[in-house]
Amino acid sequence: MMKKHVTLLMLLLPLASAVAAQSYPAKPVRMIVPFPPGGPTDIVTRLMAPKMAAALSQQVVVENRAGAGGMIATEQVAKAAPDGYTIIMGTIGGMAVAMSLSPNRGYDTLRDFAPITQSVAVTSILVTHPSVPAKNVRELLNLAKKTPGKLNYASSGNGTVTHLAGELLKLLGKVDIVHVPYKGGAPALTALVSGEVDMSYENSLIITPHIKSGRVKALAVTGAKRSALLPDLPTIAETLPGYSASGWYGLFAPAATPKPVLARLNAEAVKALRAADVADKLSGQGAEPIASSAEEFTAFVRSEIDKWANVVKAARMRTD
């Protein structure tokens, strides 16, 4: 009798999942941003949310939950009900780098999450406060070598792409520059503009207006190729061959979320990213809309976990 009940239950589970997917969403969807308002992750999320809300005929409520380089919110979403009503705009830091940099994190990306789509790829820009007497990467490295431990750089938190960018420069350039972590991109930018720190690797989504106004000085881009937004700006790799540190954001749901729900979220997120006005706004600020399939994004996340594990080991990076 017990075996019959178990068999019946197994047969009914796919049916229940399908019924749930057909009625999804029946209430507002929460889209978690693991950083404070005003930062680049927040900008991308708030561009996508209204488009997805209109398509889903439900509110998509953006919630900012900052802390620990995005890991606090990421852990919370990993433990959320897998019903499609709580998703997160994950980042390279919380989803890829933390796997090797933060052994005490409360989640495993590949075990606890279902990737939905990669939203964007974003190149950061190496910028300094105008008071720093260096006009290019070579001059900056020479200055750092002459004054070891004197220069410092801001990041949006331990394990974030801005942290990685700084450690990779130190590793390849063989210099001593002090890391100063902040709780998000917006506070890090404020510290740079005010002169509290000497330099930073700022996301092009938020730094471009400050470069144009002269409040910060741009030296190079962190990606493997020059930015279409600032084509005259060299790459760091032109001075340090092999250097490449690009960020990305993407949507994730808790791992056991029903596949039909994940498929619906992917479809609406991709449409939002491909909408002309959203794509134009993102591209105009240096972000490349990706809009990948769940399968493509899953493979990409795996490759990023492996790539940055090697950097973390080589640079002997630590979270404290």
Describe this structure in words.
The structure is a single chain. With 320 residues, this protein is of the alpha/beta class. The chain has 2 domains: 28-121 and 246-315, 3-Layer(aba) Sandwich (D-Maltodextrin-Binding Protein, domain 2); 123-238, Periplasmic binding protein-like II (D-Maltodextrin-Binding Protein, domain 2, 3-Layer(aba) Sandwich), CATH 3.40.190. 47% of the residues lie in helices and 19% in strands. The protein contains 12 helices and 10 strands. It has helices at 2-23, 40-56, 71-78, 92-101, 109-112, 137-146, 161-173, 185-194, 204-213, 259-274, 276-284, 294-315, and strands spanning 29-33, 60-64, 86-91, 113-128, 152-155, 178-181, 199-203, 217-221, 246-254, 287-289. Strands 1, 2, 3, 4, 5, 6, 7, 8, 9 and 10 form a 10-stranded mixed β-sheet that branches. The protein starts with a helix and ends in a 5-residue tail after the last helix.
Please specify the SSE layout and strand pairing.
Elements: H1 2-23, E1 29-33, H2 40-56, E2 60-64, H3 71-78, E3 86-91, H4 92-101, H5 109-112, E4 113-128, H6 137-146, E5 152-155, H7 161-173, E6 178-181, H8 185-194, E7 199-203, H9 204-213, E8 217-221, E9 246-254, H10 259-274, H11 276-284, E10 287-289, H12 294-315
Parallel strand pairs: 1-2, 1-3, 5-6, 5-7
Antiparallel strand pairs: 3-9, 4-7, 4-8, 4-9, 4-10
Helix pairs in contact: 1-10, 2-10, 4-12, 7-12
